Structures are given as structure tokens and as C-alpha cells.
Amino acid sequence: MMDYKTVSLSDQVFEHLETDILSGKYRRGEIVTELQLCSELGVSRTPVREALRRLFQEHLIEDTPKGTMVLGITPKDYLDMSEIRLRIEELAVRGFVANMTEDNRKELNEAVDFQEFYLTRGDVDHLRALDGQFHEIIYAGCGSRVLQDTLAPLHKKIQQYRHNALQAPLRAKNSVQEHRAILEAITARDADLAVEKMRQHIENAIDRALNGQEK
Amino acid sequence: MMDYKTVSLSDQVFEHLETDILSGKYRRGEIVTELQLCSELGVSRTPVREALRRLFQEHLIEDTPKGTMVLGITPKDYLDMSEIRLRIEELAVRGFVANMTEDNRKELNEAVDFQEFYLTRGDVDHLRALDGQFHEIIYAGCGSRVLQDTLAPLHKKIQQYRHNALQAPLRAKNSVQEHRAILEAITARDADLAVEKMRQHIENAIDRALNGQEK
DNA sequence: TTAGGTATTATTGTATACACGGATGCAGAG
DNA sequence: CTCTGCATCCGTGTATACAATAATACCTAA
What we know:
The structure is a homodimer.
Chain A: H1 9-22, E1 31-32, H2 34-41, H3 45-57, E2 61-64, E3 67-70, H4 75-99, H5 102-121, H6 124-140, H7 145-161, H8 169-187, H9 191-210
Chain A binds a DNA duplex through helix 3.
């Protein structure tokens, strides 16, 4: 499962910067230079540049004559990403049900179990990480590398965007309950039901992030 | 419209390699080294590496202990990408109709005009380029950067994949006719019809690429 | 005082040098 | 003949030096 090579500085810088951009540490419109990032991160320009090229590819940053401008994602981006997820997450769910192995099912089940555990602890950080895992397990098991590569970045950005949305315990609770419902439908190999539950889950997540109201 | 900066070697290498991978010049499973690419392209490792990082991000290549392995896209990838397009190209079409300006419409119209022109000439290269433009104009005008960023790479890869599919004059003719039909529905601001025409277009493209038969 | 031009600076683009790690091949011992 | 260990080589990861370009600030002249 693990890559043969140890994580390079390039990769670390990429993930570090991506997290900082998505979490809002760098504000939209802010301009940073390569050298500034080098001194902040304590590495040379080579890994910084390679990370920036990847962030550029994801349109999280933009080149300007004065340096690199942070773009991040906007509320509209969030809605657009959710709209796309509403259309194709269905494919992932159906693929997962069709390809499901006992190991896949157990892994997904475990993720939800942990979520319920950390919910009782009010451990928001673990909850958010597990939320990511839940969906990524489905992506990884859907049988389509393309679909995985399309959905995973969207969900990653969405998740960071609503960073604060899951802080409220009630919302986290509903989210976990929805995961449980999806899992049950998947376990029953009822693809139609699982898809419908997933659709509701995404729509609720949009509501949670936008107006903070529960259905 | 043009970027403020001239195209860098990094970008050129990236596009060059991407084209060569998608067109099949590098076969799937083939292993290349950075130095080999450097001497082939006549540049140093820096731009080559930056290009490779981006190709890696798109899962067109893979790192191995012996060098960089070319992955490219498989027939299944092609189907998966088409399946995704079937679901979200609709969003782009609706967005384009909703945001359409006279300039947008003209640009799209011109693309189809040119296609009909080059069709009479049997100029396959121009036809393929214009096919790409047609869809990218829609992506660019759909009002969603996220949607554009999601669809454009898919279409780019799909287009290169069926590289040879448009060689046959009859198929090219049908494709252009379908573009004309989509354009007419868009011009009439009939989003539902445009979406339906687009759906047919994508499904026909799948058939054309896979079994080479026309509907 | 203002406008214009030049010099300086700041930042990126590219090449290259160095270091590290794994794979490979050869040699020697069993 | 085979297996193991060591040395060498090959390839990548990282740092840094150098070049080019564009912005900025300053100085001078009208």
C-alpha cells in the first residue's frame, strides 16, 4: 500500500502549502514569493517550485509578475464542486457496491465505527479526518482510477472549506448518522438506496456549510 | 487572454510529453529516465522534473525504482471518463446557455463553421483541433472555473485517445453535424435540447471510438 | 515641480553540482 | 554451481549558482 519511496520534501511542501491555502492561513489574493516560502519552510527552491507547479495545476494559486498569488476556493467554487459531486459520486457508490470485497466493507464499517466513537468524545479533528477517509475508501474501491482522481481532490477541497462547519456537535452528529445510513445500504448491496442516501448526505453538507441550518 | 509571461520550457516540456504519452508515442509500461528525456528534448532536468511532477499528478506516469513508467490511458479509462462527461457536461451546457454573451455565441458558431470548412477539405488535423476548441469554448463560458478545470483535462485526454477515430471521414462528418445541432439548440437558448444533443454526441463518440460503428 | 530615463532590485526560469539510496553485477567462498 | 557480500553504477532528490526580465526608485534636466 505504501509507496516504495519515502515521502520527498516536494511532497511535504505540496501538502503543507495545500493545507495552509485551503485552511485559509494564506488569504485569497495574498502574494508570496518562492524565497519567502523557502525560508518559512526551511527548504530550497527546488521542492518549493515543484509544489507550486502542482498547486498551479489545481488552480489554487496563480502566477503574477510580483510573485505567486493565492487563490484558494471561493463559496461559488464550493457550490460548483458540490454540484459536480452530486452528479458523479453516484458512480462511485455504484462502483463500490459492484466491486465490494469483504475487506472493503470492513474498512468502511470501521471508519464509521470510529466516527461514532470520536463523536462521543467531541473530537472534531479526528471526525474530520475520518469523514475524509469514509469518502476516500469509497473512491478507492469504486473500480475507477479516473473517478477516484476526479472526486478525491474535489472532496479534499470541500472538506477543508467547511473546516469550521463540522465544529458544531449537532452537525457532526448528523453527518455521522448519514454515513451510517449510507454504509447500511452499501452493506445490503442496495445501490439505489445507497445512492439516494449519498445524495441526501451531499445536499445536507451543502446546507450545513452554507446557512448552518439542519434539515 | 494571453498570460503575461512567455511560455516556459517547463510548460513546453509538459505539453510535449503529455501529447506524446496520449498519442501513444510512449507505450504503456515503458520506462524513461529524466536524463533520457533531457537529451531527447535538449533541456536540463529542472523543466523535465517539473513537467513530470505535473504528469504524475494527472496519473499519466508513475514513479518506479528504475525510472518513470508511462501509464497513459486505457480503454477502461476512456469509458470511465466518458461516463463522467455524460454526467457533468450537462452542467457546462446549461451554464453556457445561462451566461451566454454574443461573443461566446459567435466564437462557438465560428468553431463549427470552420469544422464544416475543414470537413470539405478532409483536413483531419484541423478537425480534431476544432473539436477540442468547440468543447473548450463551452467549458470556458459555463461560468464555473471548477467545472472547466474538471472537464477540460478529461476531454483533452479523451480526444487524444480517439486520435484515430476521427480519421474516417464519415465519423468526422457525423461529429460535426452533432456539433451543429448542439450549437443551434444553444443559440435558441433551449438548454434542455442542447443537453440532450450533447448527451447523444458523447454517446455517439463512445460508439465511434469503441466499435467504430455509427448509429 | 514634473517628466523621463537609467540603474538597481526583486523574482522567476534554467542549468548544474552534489548527495543519497537502491539496483546490479562481479567475485569469492561454500 | 550457487549463494552471499561488496563495490560500482545509475537514477533521483535537493541545493545553489547563474541568467533574464520586469518593476521600482532615484536622479537629473527642463
